[in-house]
Predict the structure.
Amino acid sequence: PLVDPSRAVPSAAGLDSTAQSVTSAPIPPAGFVEWVGTSGLVNLAIVFTDVIGSTSLNVELGDEVWGRIRDAHFEHAGNLVRVRGGCVIKTIGDAVMAAFRNAVDALAFAMQLEADPGHPAVHIRAGVHVGQVQVSQGDTFGTQVNLAARVAGKAKQGGVWISDRVREDWLTQSPNQSPTWSKHNETLRGFHGRRFTLWSLPP
């Protein structure tokens, strides 16, 4: 099962380009290889996050200041990922791609990072999807990875967007902790007009 019942459960054009550039990004650190523990097809929850308006911030603040802010955001994101038992696969520009063993921890991480991105100048969007992905050379590939990036890309104004499967898993594990989600019937770029039920929490 994608949700581990033994675990207690105590925010876009930028992501559109992220989905296209996944395979061209630098090889991730060995930490992900150790964390996932295998290659081939694996059930994982994938989270993409992206800083809203990062180019404008970079121009306004300058490379040095923006670099320090981005680093603080990445460090904070990494800490939250580890708290939830996940692993940062890689960063892409100012985006974070992370994996979790189940949808509940993935969504909890996304909601926590959206609420507190690690610096007051930073605001993010996030997307979460869960499914079978191809693990190879310390990275993840496949339709479900691209779908996760497209889900995040729908959060144009920020907030957290999730697939229907993520919401189902969340409701199964955390029926008393479910926030109020808005329902959407959306097409996703590259999926040939197929419509998906997605859910969102506003920023």
User: Anything to note?
Assistant: Confidence is low (pLDDT under 50) at residues 1-28. The helical segments are 13-21, 30-36, 54-61, 63-83, 103-115, 143-153, 164-173. The longest helix spans residues 63-83. The radius of gyration is 16 Å.
